[in-house]
Task: structure prediction
Amino acid sequence: GVTPTAELKALVSQYNAMLVNSGTIEEAAKQAYIDAHYEEALAEMEARHEALLASGQDVPEVACRHHDVHWLAILDNASFRMKKGEHIGLVGANGEGKSTFLNIITGVRQPDEGTVTWAKRATVGYLDQHAVLKEGMTIRDVLRTAFSRMYEMEADMLEMYNKMADCTDEEMTQLMEDVGEIQDILDHGGFYTIDSRIEEFANGLGLGEIGLDRDVSQLSGGQRTKVLLTKLLLENPTILILDEPTNYLDENHIRWLTTFLQNYENAFLLVSHDVPFLNAVTNVIYHVENAVLTR
Result:
């Protein structure tokens, strides 16, 4: 990873200016984009540099110097712990490594050193904005997949009932025990109120206004993100990881999400530039600066 020093930011600006002058791209990358997506900007810079070299163009020295800064660390000797029920906010300036940290703990990226360990039976939910929404599915269909495991358990339970028609006494005892366990899980998980929960969550985050029977292929990028966020909240993971969840939400939807997270019984980790929102829902803060993560 790379820490966005002033020198490196200037390097990116100079490099993009060089690309503009050479006609390789139409305009330089916006500084706000570089601040918010620094590693992506740097990777793109490297790819463009390699393309220029391959084309035989004369590349100014400033475009080559970025290779010398890869030793800079985004996180160094970082230690992070999350206790049951904690509502954690991760704060730090743009480019300090918040997104990199989220990618590491969710397994998207591997740390150069150290390990990430979750408690046994912990379920980790992360908003994957690159997830594919299958054409032909409605918003309601997608939200129901949040309960796919419960639907599978119900099917297993019904199959067990069928087996009871022709089984030994010993098998019957085991089947009754297994059915009872599944029934308890379904009852505790709210399986028989799924439709009303879907309506509640969808309306809270603005999907009701779009229409739950709309095909997901017709959705805008912001609407698609709302669907994925709603599905994630319905899954009710023991550990919830949210990266800028208020994007695309209006004031009423943010208010609903605020109340939801304040009452969330499980743990979550939140990154948000919406300071009032972050302050309203968190009870622990981790701060990352100069490659140091502090609780």
Q: What stands out?
A: Residues 22-34, 58-72 have pLDDT under 50 and may be disordered. The longest strand covers residues 284-289. The longest helix spans residues 169-188.
